[in-house]
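User: What would this chain look like folded?
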Amino acid sequence: LFLDGNKVPAELPRGISEWFIVRTYEEFCDFMVKYTEDNMRFPSIMSLNHDLHKEHFERENNRHPVSPIKYDSYSEKTGKECVEFLIQLSELKQISLNSKVVIHSDNHKGKANMMYILSAYIKNRGHEGVVIEHSWKTR
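Assistant: Here's the prediction, encoded as C-alpha cells.
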C-alpha cells in the first residue's frame, strides 16, 4: 500500500508485484477496511506520507519551525490520522499489525508524530513483526 497525495513510488520492494496507491484519508480507510475483510491481515508493506493535501504543505511552509502541527486547523486529514485509523482497525478486527511500515514524508514533525504513535502502539500491544523505517524513494 502506498499512501501519498501526489507522489508515486520509484520502485517495487522485493516480494510484491504492484503497489496499491491511495491518495486521501478516505481512500486509505476504504482500502484498509476492504483489504482486511478480504485477507484477514494488513498489507505486508505500507509506505505512508504525512502531507496528503496542498493545505498541509501550505501551512507547513508558513509555520514557525518549533511550533507543533495544529491538526484541528486542517479541513483534510493527514497521514497521522491514517495511522490512528490503522490502529483502531487493528483493535476492532483483532488483526495483528505485522507489516513493514515506511514513513516517507518530508515533513519531519509529521513523520515523527506518525512514528511515535506507531511505535507506542507496537510497544504496548506486542506487535513484534512490525518494522518501521524512515525513508523510501518516491518521485
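The chain has a mean pLDDT of 84. If you want, I can go into more detail on any region.
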